[in-house]
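Issue 218. Parser rejects a valid record. Input:
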Amino acid sequence: MPMFRKFGNPGPLGLSAFALTTFVLSLHNGGIGQKLGSPPNVVTGLAFFYGGLCQLLAGMWEFASGNTFGATAFSSYGGFWMSYAVILVPGFGVGSALTAAGDTAHSHAIGIFLLGWVIMTFIFFLATLRTNLGLCLLFAFLDITFILLCAGEWNAKPHVVQAGGYFGLFTALIAWYIAASDLITKQSSFFTLPNPSLAPSGNRGPVVEEGDVKSESGN
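Output the parser choked on:
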């Protein structure tokens, strides 16, 4: 008989990797703890290895678990963090090439880069409207964050970028909450964290673990 290996839930890893990396960059963008506009290179290591590699791995494990939404979201944002890190590393020559191209080339290029993620995140938001409250709020706040960062970078408005940093902090906290709601279970703790379903009561599928990054249909 064929044997099947049961995978653990990769959701908390992907959400935690996203949350911590977003939290650190958002503190920088918000000018919290350091001067507004200072270089964001402190996030480079996180962007490559935690927000990038670990989240990408979580996405691959979601594919193996049959969770299409979680796989696409984690893999996409893992790629986002890796590609953002490439912009920050001088050896890749991206930042220097954009700076050498003129006054607005760098800000406009970053704005275009972020605009793509505004669109992608909005698609993910639409796919969460019948999942659970945590996921829906996560992608709503993340899309607002990307919109503010995109507008701020394109127009070279540091205070708009700063507002994006503040929304990014809320986004990170929501992601951590969802991860915690999956890790803190009746088997591992004395309490659980609620994450209400948004699916109509008559159309809810089988019960899944709290905080799992899945739609009610399993996708």
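Fixed in the parser; the record now loads. The chain has a mean pLDDT of 90.
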